Protein backbone atom coordinates (compact mmCIF):
# COMPACT_ATOMS: atom_id res chain seq x y z
CA UNK A 1 0.00 0.00 0.00
CA UNK A 2 1.18 3.49 -0.79
CA UNK A 3 2.15 5.14 2.49
CA UNK A 4 0.17 8.15 3.67
CA UNK A 5 1.82 11.08 5.43
CA UNK A 6 -0.37 13.74 7.06
CA UNK A 7 0.71 17.33 7.72
CA UNK A 8 -0.77 18.84 10.87
CA UNK A 9 -0.30 22.17 12.57
CA UNK A 10 -1.89 25.46 13.35
CA UNK A 11 -2.43 27.91 10.48
CA UNK A 12 0.60 29.63 8.99
CA UNK A 13 3.32 27.24 10.15
CA UNK A 14 4.13 26.25 6.55
CA UNK A 15 2.00 23.19 5.82
CA UNK A 16 1.03 24.29 2.31
CA UNK A 17 4.60 25.25 1.56
CA UNK A 18 5.79 21.79 2.56
CA UNK A 19 2.87 20.13 0.75
CA UNK A 20 3.71 21.93 -2.48
CA UNK A 21 7.38 21.11 -2.18
CA UNK A 22 6.68 17.42 -1.66
CA UNK A 23 3.97 16.94 -4.26
CA UNK A 24 4.94 19.42 -6.95
CA UNK A 25 1.44 18.81 -8.21
CA UNK A 26 -0.38 21.64 -9.85
CA UNK A 27 -3.80 20.33 -9.00
CA UNK A 28 -3.99 18.96 -5.52
CA UNK A 29 -7.09 17.03 -4.70
CA UNK A 30 -9.25 19.08 -2.38
CA UNK A 31 -11.86 17.18 -0.43
CA UNK A 32 -15.11 19.04 -0.68
CA UNK A 33 -17.72 16.39 -0.15
CA UNK A 34 -20.85 17.21 1.80
CA UNK A 35 -19.98 16.82 5.43
CA UNK A 36 -16.36 17.64 4.81
CA UNK A 37 -16.13 21.34 5.34
CA UNK A 38 -12.48 21.79 5.95
CA UNK A 39 -10.01 22.08 3.13
CA UNK A 40 -8.00 18.95 3.12
CA UNK A 41 -5.59 18.54 0.27
CA UNK A 42 -4.27 15.28 -1.08
CA UNK A 43 -1.26 14.97 -3.32
CA UNK A 44 0.97 12.33 -4.85
CA UNK A 45 4.62 12.55 -4.01
CA UNK A 46 7.79 10.69 -4.79
CA UNK A 47 11.15 10.62 -3.05
CA UNK A 48 14.00 8.68 -4.61
CA UNK A 49 11.57 6.44 -6.47
CA UNK A 50 9.30 5.81 -3.49
CA UNK A 51 5.69 6.88 -3.93
CA UNK A 52 3.65 8.26 -1.08
CA UNK A 53 0.50 10.28 -0.52
CA UNK A 54 0.63 13.60 1.34
CA UNK A 55 -2.42 14.99 3.11
CA UNK A 56 -2.53 18.61 4.22
CA UNK A 57 -5.13 18.43 6.96
CA UNK A 58 -5.86 22.14 6.97
CA UNK A 59 -5.10 24.32 9.95
CA UNK A 60 -6.25 23.37 13.41
CA UNK A 61 -5.70 25.29 16.59
CA UNK A 62 -6.52 22.49 18.97
CA UNK A 63 -8.90 24.61 21.05
CA UNK A 64 -11.87 24.77 18.69
CA UNK A 65 -15.37 24.79 20.07
CA UNK A 66 -18.78 24.14 18.53
CA UNK A 67 -18.75 23.97 14.76
CA UNK A 68 -15.02 24.63 14.73
CA UNK A 69 -14.51 21.59 16.90
CA UNK A 70 -16.47 19.46 14.44
CA UNK A 71 -14.28 20.67 11.62
CA UNK A 72 -11.16 20.05 13.62
CA UNK A 73 -12.44 16.54 14.27
CA UNK A 74 -12.55 15.98 10.55
CA UNK A 75 -8.96 17.08 10.23
CA UNK A 76 -8.15 14.62 12.94
CA UNK A 77 -9.94 11.91 10.97
CA UNK A 78 -7.47 12.51 8.19
CA UNK A 79 -4.80 11.71 10.74
CA UNK A 80 -6.47 8.38 11.40
CA UNK A 81 -5.93 7.40 7.78
CA UNK A 82 -2.26 8.34 7.87
CA UNK A 83 0.69 6.08 8.49
CA UNK A 84 2.76 8.90 9.92
CA UNK A 85 2.01 12.44 11.04
CA UNK A 86 4.28 15.42 10.56
CA UNK A 87 3.37 17.95 13.22
CA UNK A 88 4.66 21.33 12.08
CA UNK A 89 5.53 24.17 14.42
CA UNK A 90 6.96 27.59 13.59
CA UNK A 91 10.52 28.03 14.85
CA UNK A 92 10.26 31.80 14.38
CA UNK A 93 7.01 32.24 16.28
CA UNK A 94 8.08 29.91 19.06
CA UNK A 95 5.91 27.61 21.13
CA UNK A 96 2.24 28.62 21.32
CA UNK A 97 -0.78 27.50 23.31
CA UNK A 98 -2.28 26.14 20.08
CA UNK A 99 0.80 23.95 19.52
CA UNK A 100 0.35 22.52 23.00
CA UNK A 101 -3.34 21.80 22.43
CA UNK A 102 -2.60 20.02 19.13
CA UNK A 103 0.20 18.01 20.73
CA UNK A 104 -2.25 16.88 23.37
CA UNK A 105 -4.68 15.70 20.64
CA UNK A 106 -1.90 13.90 18.83
CA UNK A 107 -0.69 12.07 21.91
CA UNK A 108 -4.15 10.49 22.17
CA UNK A 109 -4.07 9.27 18.56
CA UNK A 110 -1.50 6.48 18.93
CA UNK A 111 0.10 7.53 15.67
CA UNK A 112 3.75 7.97 14.93
CA UNK A 113 4.29 11.73 15.17
CA UNK A 114 7.32 13.55 13.83
CA UNK A 115 7.72 16.96 15.43
CA UNK A 116 8.93 19.35 12.75
CA UNK A 117 10.22 22.85 13.43
CA UNK A 118 9.82 24.82 10.22
CA UNK A 119 11.29 28.17 9.15
CA UNK A 120 14.68 27.47 10.70
CA UNK A 121 16.38 29.28 7.83
CA UNK A 122 18.64 32.05 9.12
CA UNK A 123 18.20 30.92 12.72
CA UNK A 124 20.46 29.09 15.10
CA UNK A 125 18.34 25.95 14.81
CA UNK A 126 19.28 24.22 18.03
CA UNK A 127 18.56 27.30 20.08
CA UNK A 128 15.35 28.12 18.23
CA UNK A 129 13.81 24.69 18.64
CA UNK A 130 14.83 24.04 22.25
CA UNK A 131 11.54 25.21 23.72
CA UNK A 132 9.56 22.71 21.61
CA UNK A 133 10.98 19.82 23.60
CA UNK A 134 8.34 20.82 26.16
CA UNK A 135 5.79 19.18 23.82
CA UNK A 136 7.28 15.84 24.80
CA UNK A 137 7.11 14.42 21.29
CA UNK A 138 10.72 13.33 21.09
CA UNK A 139 13.22 14.40 18.44
CA UNK A 140 12.71 17.64 16.62
CA UNK A 141 13.34 17.79 12.89
CA UNK A 142 14.61 21.17 11.75
CA UNK A 143 13.52 22.18 8.29
CA UNK A 144 12.99 25.19 6.05
CA UNK A 145 10.12 24.12 3.82
CA UNK A 146 10.42 27.15 1.58
CA UNK A 147 13.99 26.16 0.71
CA UNK A 148 13.59 22.41 0.95
CA UNK A 149 16.22 22.22 3.66
CA UNK A 150 15.94 19.14 5.87
CA UNK A 151 12.83 17.88 4.12
CA UNK A 152 14.39 14.84 2.43
CA UNK A 153 15.82 13.44 5.64
CA UNK A 154 12.52 14.01 7.36
CA UNK A 155 10.55 12.15 4.68
CA UNK A 156 13.10 9.34 4.50
CA UNK A 157 12.72 8.75 8.22
CA UNK A 158 8.93 8.93 8.05
CA UNK A 159 8.86 6.39 5.21
CA UNK A 160 11.36 4.16 7.00
CA UNK A 161 9.05 4.20 10.00
CA UNK A 162 6.07 3.16 7.85
CA UNK A 163 8.06 0.29 6.38
CA UNK A 164 9.05 -1.01 9.77
CA UNK A 165 5.51 -0.57 11.12
CA UNK A 166 3.75 -2.38 8.23
CA UNK A 167 6.11 -5.00 6.92
CA UNK A 168 3.39 -7.52 6.01
CA UNK A 169 1.15 -5.03 4.21
CA UNK A 170 3.51 -4.84 1.28
CA UNK A 171 3.68 -8.39 0.11
CA UNK A 172 0.13 -9.66 -0.12
CA UNK A 173 -0.94 -8.04 -3.36
CA UNK A 174 1.58 -5.45 -4.42
CA UNK A 175 4.98 -6.98 -3.86
CA UNK A 176 6.96 -8.17 -6.85
CA UNK A 177 4.19 -7.17 -9.19
CA UNK A 178 5.69 -6.97 -12.67
CA UNK A 179 2.51 -5.25 -13.88
CA UNK A 180 3.08 -2.00 -12.12
CA UNK A 181 5.46 0.60 -13.48
CA UNK A 182 6.98 -2.10 -15.60
CA UNK A 183 10.54 -1.62 -16.66
CA UNK A 184 12.04 -3.04 -19.76
CA UNK A 185 13.75 -6.38 -19.25
CA UNK A 186 16.68 -7.84 -21.16
CA UNK A 187 15.52 -9.48 -24.39
CA UNK A 188 15.82 -13.04 -23.08
CA UNK A 189 13.63 -12.28 -20.08
CA UNK A 190 10.86 -10.71 -22.10
CA UNK A 191 9.11 -13.99 -22.78
CA UNK A 192 9.08 -14.81 -19.12
CA UNK A 193 7.54 -11.41 -18.55
CA UNK A 194 4.74 -12.24 -20.96
CA UNK A 195 4.09 -15.47 -19.10
CA UNK A 196 4.02 -13.60 -15.81
CA UNK A 197 1.52 -11.15 -17.24
CA UNK A 198 -0.71 -13.94 -18.44
CA UNK A 199 -0.72 -15.77 -15.11
CA UNK A 200 -1.32 -12.89 -12.71
CA UNK A 201 -4.77 -11.39 -12.18
CA UNK A 202 -5.65 -7.99 -13.64
CA UNK A 203 -6.08 -5.66 -10.68
CA UNK A 204 -9.19 -3.62 -11.26
CA UNK A 205 -9.98 -0.68 -8.98
CA UNK A 206 -13.57 0.48 -8.77
CA UNK A 207 -13.48 4.23 -8.18
CA UNK A 208 -16.23 6.83 -7.90
CA UNK A 209 -18.07 9.21 -5.61
CA UNK A 210 -20.47 7.92 -2.96
CA UNK A 211 -23.79 6.59 -4.31
CA UNK A 212 -22.80 6.31 -7.95
CA UNK A 213 -23.47 2.58 -7.69
CA UNK A 214 -20.09 0.96 -7.03
CA UNK A 215 -21.41 -1.62 -4.57
CA UNK A 216 -24.35 -2.43 -6.80
CA UNK A 217 -21.92 -2.94 -9.67
CA UNK A 218 -19.61 -5.14 -7.63
CA UNK A 219 -22.56 -7.27 -6.58
CA UNK A 220 -23.79 -7.46 -10.15
CA UNK A 221 -20.37 -8.53 -11.40
CA UNK A 222 -20.03 -11.17 -8.74
CA UNK A 223 -23.61 -12.26 -9.24
CA UNK A 224 -24.27 -12.51 -5.56
CA UNK A 225 -24.69 -10.40 -2.49
CA UNK A 226 -21.36 -11.42 -1.10
CA UNK A 227 -19.65 -8.09 -0.78
CA UNK A 228 -22.10 -6.66 1.70
CA UNK A 229 -21.52 -9.39 4.22
CA UNK A 230 -17.84 -9.77 3.54
CA UNK A 231 -16.16 -9.54 6.88
CA UNK A 232 -12.79 -7.92 6.66
CA UNK A 233 -10.34 -7.15 9.39
CA UNK A 234 -8.64 -3.82 9.13
CA UNK A 235 -9.59 -0.21 9.24
CA UNK A 236 -12.04 1.91 7.29
CA UNK A 237 -9.31 2.91 4.92
CA UNK A 238 -8.74 -0.60 3.60
CA UNK A 239 -10.36 -1.66 0.36
CA UNK A 240 -11.64 -5.19 -0.17
CA UNK A 241 -9.72 -7.38 -2.61
CA UNK A 242 -11.98 -9.89 -4.35
CA UNK A 243 -10.49 -12.51 -6.68
CA UNK A 244 -12.71 -13.42 -9.62
CA UNK A 245 -12.62 -15.05 -13.04
CA UNK A 246 -14.39 -14.06 -16.20
CA UNK A 247 -14.10 -15.46 -19.71
CA UNK A 248 -10.95 -17.33 -18.82
CA UNK A 249 -9.12 -14.36 -17.32
CA UNK A 250 -8.36 -13.71 -13.71
CA UNK A 251 -9.10 -10.45 -11.97
CA UNK A 252 -8.57 -8.98 -8.56
CA UNK A 253 -11.41 -6.57 -7.94
CA UNK A 254 -10.43 -3.73 -5.61
CA UNK A 255 -13.66 -2.60 -4.02
CA UNK A 256 -13.32 0.80 -2.36
CA UNK A 257 -16.97 0.93 -1.32
CA UNK A 258 -17.48 -2.29 0.55
CA UNK A 259 -16.02 -1.78 3.98
CA UNK A 260 -18.14 1.14 5.01
CA UNK A 261 -21.22 -1.06 4.95
CA UNK A 262 -20.13 -2.47 8.23
CA UNK A 263 -19.80 0.97 9.73
CA UNK A 264 -22.39 3.41 10.86
CA UNK A 265 -23.97 4.73 7.65
CA UNK A 266 -24.59 8.08 9.32
CA UNK A 267 -20.94 8.82 9.58
CA UNK A 268 -20.79 10.96 6.46
CA UNK A 269 -17.06 11.42 6.70
CA UNK A 270 -16.37 7.73 6.44
CA UNK A 271 -18.51 7.14 3.38
CA UNK A 272 -15.77 8.17 1.10
CA UNK A 273 -12.09 8.04 1.69
CA UNK A 274 -9.85 9.81 -0.76
CA UNK A 275 -6.88 8.00 0.67
CA UNK A 276 -8.59 4.70 -0.07
CA UNK A 277 -9.34 5.77 -3.64
CA UNK A 278 -5.77 6.96 -4.21
CA UNK A 279 -4.27 3.79 -2.80
CA UNK A 280 -6.59 1.66 -4.92
CA UNK A 281 -5.53 3.63 -8.01
CA UNK A 282 -1.88 3.15 -7.12
CA UNK A 283 -2.32 -0.57 -6.63
CA UNK A 284 -4.43 -1.22 -9.73
CA UNK A 285 -3.62 -2.05 -13.33
CA UNK A 286 -6.93 -0.75 -14.61
CA UNK A 287 -9.12 1.90 -12.99
CA UNK A 288 -12.85 1.56 -13.57
CA UNK A 289 -14.20 5.04 -12.98
CA UNK A 290 -17.93 5.02 -12.24
CA UNK A 291 -20.17 8.07 -12.76
CA UNK A 292 -23.85 8.55 -11.98
CA UNK A 293 -25.60 9.60 -15.21
CA UNK A 294 -28.00 11.73 -13.20
CA UNK A 295 -25.20 13.65 -11.47
CA UNK A 296 -22.68 13.91 -14.29
CA UNK A 297 -18.97 14.51 -13.94
CA UNK A 298 -17.96 16.23 -10.70
CA UNK A 299 -14.78 18.14 -9.98
CA UNK A 300 -13.73 15.27 -7.70
CA UNK A 301 -14.11 12.83 -10.56
CA UNK A 302 -11.86 14.93 -12.76
CA UNK A 303 -9.19 15.17 -10.13
CA UNK A 304 -9.33 11.44 -9.40
CA UNK A 305 -8.99 10.81 -13.14
CA UNK A 306 -6.03 13.19 -13.13
CA UNK A 307 -4.40 11.09 -10.43
CA UNK A 308 -5.03 7.91 -12.38
CA UNK A 309 -3.47 9.39 -15.51
CA UNK A 310 -0.58 10.76 -13.51
CA UNK A 311 0.03 7.29 -12.09
CA UNK A 312 0.00 5.86 -15.61
CA UNK A 313 -2.99 3.66 -14.99
CA UNK A 314 -5.27 2.28 -17.67
CA UNK A 315 -8.78 3.68 -17.44
CA UNK A 316 -12.28 2.57 -18.39
CA UNK A 317 -15.27 4.81 -17.71
CA UNK A 318 -18.71 3.51 -16.74
CA UNK A 319 -21.67 5.90 -16.76
CA UNK A 320 -24.09 4.14 -14.44
CA UNK A 321 -27.87 4.43 -13.88
CA UNK A 322 -28.44 4.64 -17.64
CA UNK A 323 -31.84 3.03 -17.09
CA UNK A 324 -35.11 4.95 -17.28
CA UNK A 325 -33.68 8.09 -18.93
CA UNK A 326 -35.38 9.92 -21.80
CA UNK A 327 -33.52 10.16 -25.09
CA UNK A 328 -33.05 13.91 -24.89
CA UNK A 329 -31.60 13.56 -21.38
CA UNK A 330 -29.23 10.88 -22.63
CA UNK A 331 -28.11 13.12 -25.48
CA UNK A 332 -27.47 15.99 -23.11
CA UNK A 333 -25.42 13.78 -20.79
CA UNK A 334 -23.39 12.43 -23.70
CA UNK A 335 -22.47 15.86 -25.00
CA UNK A 336 -21.52 16.99 -21.50
CA UNK A 337 -19.21 13.96 -21.21
CA UNK A 338 -17.64 14.72 -24.58
CA UNK A 339 -16.93 18.23 -23.50
CA UNK A 340 -15.54 17.49 -20.06
CA UNK A 341 -13.66 14.28 -20.74
CA UNK A 342 -11.83 15.49 -23.82
CA UNK A 343 -8.52 15.28 -21.96
CA UNK A 344 -8.93 11.54 -21.52
CA UNK A 345 -10.03 10.63 -25.01
CA UNK A 346 -8.08 7.35 -24.85
CA UNK A 347 -10.52 5.83 -22.35
CA UNK A 348 -13.57 3.93 -23.52
CA UNK A 349 -16.91 5.05 -22.12
CA UNK A 350 -19.70 2.57 -21.35
CA UNK A 351 -23.29 3.38 -20.51
CA UNK A 352 -24.55 0.82 -18.05
CA UNK A 353 -27.15 -0.04 -15.47
CA UNK A 354 -25.64 -1.86 -12.54
CA UNK A 355 -29.14 -2.32 -11.18
CA UNK A 356 -30.45 -4.18 -14.24
CA UNK A 357 -27.12 -5.51 -15.48
CA UNK A 358 -27.32 -3.77 -18.87
CA UNK A 359 -23.90 -3.25 -20.46
CA UNK A 360 -21.95 -4.67 -17.51
CA UNK A 361 -20.54 -7.61 -19.47
CA UNK A 362 -19.11 -5.36 -22.18
CA UNK A 363 -17.06 -3.48 -19.59
CA UNK A 364 -14.71 -6.41 -19.39
CA UNK A 365 -13.82 -6.25 -23.07
CA UNK A 366 -12.56 -2.72 -22.57
CA UNK A 367 -10.83 -3.63 -19.30
CA UNK A 368 -8.81 -6.44 -20.89
CA UNK A 369 -8.18 -4.33 -23.99
CA UNK A 370 -6.78 -1.55 -21.79
CA UNK A 371 -4.65 -3.95 -19.82
CA UNK A 372 -3.30 -5.68 -22.90
CA UNK A 373 -2.55 -2.29 -24.45
CA UNK A 374 -0.57 -1.22 -21.42
CA UNK A 375 1.63 -4.31 -21.48
CA UNK A 376 2.00 -4.65 -25.23
CA UNK A 377 5.45 -5.50 -26.58
CA UNK A 378 6.64 -3.39 -29.46
CA UNK A 379 9.90 -3.74 -31.35
CA UNK A 380 12.39 -1.00 -32.11
CA UNK A 381 11.97 -1.55 -35.84
CA UNK A 382 8.22 -1.12 -35.64
CA UNK A 383 8.46 2.03 -33.51
CA UNK A 384 11.10 3.49 -35.78
CA UNK A 385 8.92 2.79 -38.83
CA UNK A 386 6.02 4.57 -37.14
CA UNK A 387 8.18 7.61 -36.33
CA UNK A 388 9.30 7.83 -39.97
CA UNK A 389 5.71 7.57 -41.20
CA UNK A 390 4.59 10.24 -38.76
CA UNK A 391 7.37 12.56 -39.93
CA UNK A 392 6.56 11.87 -43.60
CA UNK A 393 2.93 12.75 -43.01
CA UNK A 394 3.70 15.86 -41.06
CA UNK A 395 7.20 17.35 -40.74
CA UNK A 396 8.30 18.75 -37.39
CA UNK A 397 8.43 22.54 -37.49
CA UNK A 398 11.65 24.49 -38.14
CA UNK A 399 13.56 25.92 -35.23
CA UNK A 400 16.05 28.77 -35.78
CA UNK A 401 16.20 27.87 -39.45
CA UNK A 402 16.89 24.20 -38.81
CA UNK A 403 14.44 21.35 -38.92
CA UNK A 404 14.03 19.18 -35.82
CA UNK A 405 15.08 15.65 -36.81
CA UNK A 406 13.55 12.48 -35.41
CA UNK A 407 15.70 9.43 -36.14
CA UNK A 408 14.47 6.32 -34.37
CA UNK A 409 12.44 5.09 -31.42
CA UNK A 410 12.42 2.18 -29.01
CA UNK A 411 10.33 0.95 -26.11
CA UNK A 412 11.44 2.30 -22.75
CA UNK A 413 9.01 0.52 -20.46
CA UNK A 414 5.50 -0.74 -19.93
CA UNK A 415 2.51 0.12 -17.88
CA UNK A 416 2.03 2.66 -19.18
CA UNK A 417 3.83 2.21 -22.47
CA UNK A 418 6.88 4.45 -22.65
CA UNK A 419 8.33 5.22 -26.05
CA UNK A 420 11.74 6.84 -26.34
CA UNK A 421 12.28 8.91 -29.48
CA UNK A 422 15.80 9.92 -30.50
CA UNK A 423 16.68 12.85 -32.70
CA UNK A 424 18.27 16.31 -32.96
CA UNK A 425 17.02 19.46 -31.28
CA UNK A 426 14.11 17.47 -29.90
CA UNK A 427 13.80 19.83 -26.94
CA UNK A 428 12.49 22.39 -29.44
CA UNK A 429 9.48 20.28 -30.40
CA UNK A 430 6.22 22.04 -29.69
CA UNK A 431 3.58 20.56 -27.41
CA UNK A 432 1.23 20.20 -30.35
CA UNK A 433 3.77 18.15 -32.32
CA UNK A 434 4.37 15.97 -29.27
CA UNK A 435 0.65 15.37 -29.01
CA UNK A 436 0.50 14.60 -32.72
CA UNK A 437 3.21 11.95 -32.29
CA UNK A 438 1.55 10.37 -29.27
CA UNK A 439 -1.72 10.10 -31.18
CA UNK A 440 0.12 8.67 -34.15
CA UNK A 441 1.65 5.96 -31.95
CA UNK A 442 -1.73 5.32 -30.39
CA UNK A 443 -3.46 4.77 -33.72
CA UNK A 444 -0.65 2.79 -35.32
CA UNK A 445 -0.16 0.47 -32.35
CA UNK A 446 -3.90 0.25 -31.58
CA UNK A 447 -3.27 1.19 -27.97
CA UNK A 448 -6.55 1.91 -26.23
CA UNK A 449 -7.50 2.65 -22.67
CA UNK A 450 -4.04 3.49 -21.42
CA UNK A 451 -1.96 6.65 -21.44
CA UNK A 452 1.19 6.63 -23.61
CA UNK A 453 4.33 8.37 -22.44
CA UNK A 454 6.83 9.61 -24.97
CA UNK A 455 10.33 10.71 -24.00
CA UNK A 456 12.59 12.61 -26.37
CA UNK A 457 16.38 12.25 -26.36
CA UNK A 458 18.78 14.48 -28.16
CA UNK A 459 21.81 13.80 -30.30
CA UNK A 460 22.04 10.03 -30.49
P1 LIG B 1 0.02 26.91 6.37
O1 LIG B 1 -1.08 27.84 6.76
O2 LIG B 1 0.48 26.09 7.52
O3 LIG B 1 -0.31 26.09 5.17
O4 LIG B 1 1.30 27.83 6.01
P2 LIG B 1 1.88 28.32 4.59
O5 LIG B 1 2.56 27.21 3.88
O6 LIG B 1 0.81 29.05 3.88
O7 LIG B 1 3.03 29.31 5.07
C1 LIG B 1 2.77 30.43 5.87
C2 LIG B 1 3.85 31.46 5.65
O8 LIG B 1 5.12 30.98 6.10
C3 LIG B 1 4.03 31.84 4.19
O9 LIG B 1 4.24 33.22 4.10
C4 LIG B 1 5.28 31.08 3.78
O10 LIG B 1 5.97 31.71 2.76
C5 LIG B 1 6.07 31.10 5.07
N1 LIG B 1 7.01 29.97 5.14
C6 LIG B 1 6.74 28.67 4.89
N2 LIG B 1 7.85 27.91 5.04
C7 LIG B 1 8.85 28.75 5.38
C8 LIG B 1 10.25 28.56 5.67
O11 LIG B 1 10.80 27.47 5.63
N3 LIG B 1 10.95 29.68 6.01
C9 LIG B 1 10.39 30.92 6.06
N4 LIG B 1 11.17 31.93 6.39
N5 LIG B 1 9.09 31.13 5.78
C10 LIG B 1 8.32 30.07 5.45
P1 LIG C 1 -21.91 3.29 -3.93
O1 LIG C 1 -21.97 4.24 -2.79
O2 LIG C 1 -21.14 3.87 -5.08
O3 LIG C 1 -21.43 1.93 -3.56
O4 LIG C 1 -23.44 3.16 -4.49
P2 LIG C 1 -24.52 2.01 -4.23
O5 LIG C 1 -24.17 0.79 -4.99
O6 LIG C 1 -24.73 1.89 -2.77
O7 LIG C 1 -25.80 2.66 -4.94
C1 LIG C 1 -26.37 3.88 -4.49
C2 LIG C 1 -27.83 3.92 -4.90
O8 LIG C 1 -27.95 3.94 -6.33
C3 LIG C 1 -28.62 2.70 -4.43
O9 LIG C 1 -29.89 3.14 -4.01
C4 LIG C 1 -28.71 1.84 -5.67
O10 LIG C 1 -29.85 1.02 -5.69
C5 LIG C 1 -28.78 2.89 -6.77
N1 LIG C 1 -28.28 2.36 -8.05
C6 LIG C 1 -27.11 1.71 -8.26
N2 LIG C 1 -26.98 1.37 -9.56
C7 LIG C 1 -28.08 1.82 -10.19
C8 LIG C 1 -28.54 1.77 -11.56
O11 LIG C 1 -27.90 1.24 -12.47
N3 LIG C 1 -29.72 2.37 -11.84
C9 LIG C 1 -30.48 2.98 -10.88
N4 LIG C 1 -31.62 3.53 -11.26
N5 LIG C 1 -30.08 3.03 -9.59
C10 LIG C 1 -28.91 2.46 -9.24
Bound molecules: guanosine-5'-diphosphate
By CATH, the topology of the largest domain is Rossmann fold
Helix content: 25-40%
What is the 3D form? Answer: globular
What is the CATH C-level name of the largest domain?
Alpha Beta
What is the correct CATH architecture of the largest domain?
3-Layer(aba) Sandwich
Give the structural class.
alpha/beta
The N- to C-terminal Cα distance equals 39 Å
Number of domains: 3
Low-confidence segments, given as residue ranges, are 31-38, 169-179, 225-235, 259-270
Find the count of extended strands (DSSP E, 2+ residues): 18
Task: Please describe the structure with a list of short key phrases separated by commas or semicolons.
single chain; alpha/beta; Rossmann fold; GMP Synthetase, Chain A, domain 3; 7-stranded mixed sheet; 6-stranded mixed sheet; 16 helices; 22% strand; globular; binds guanosine-5'-diphosphate
List strands and helices in order, with pairings.
Elements lengths: L3 E5 L6 H9 L5 E3 L8 E8 L2 E7 L9 H15 L3 E7 L6 H12 L4 E6 L6 H5 L10 E3 L8 H15 L1 H5 L15 H13 L2 E6 L6 H9 L3 H4 L10 E7 L2 E7 L12 H4 L2 H10 L2 E7 L6 H12 L3 E7 L6 H14 L7 E4 L8 H15 L5 H14 L4 E2 L2 E2 L1 E9 L4 E7 L6 H15 L7 E6 L2
Parallel strand pairs: 1-4, 1-5, 5-6, 6-7, 8-10, 8-11, 11-12, 12-13, 17-18
Antiparallel strand pairs: 2-3, 3-4, 9-10, 14-15, 16-17
Bound molecules: guanosine-5'-diphosphate (2 copies).
Keywords: GTP-binding, Nucleotide-binding, Repeat, Ribosome biogenesis
Subunit structure: Associates with the 50S ribosomal subunit.
Organism: Moritella marina ATCC 15381
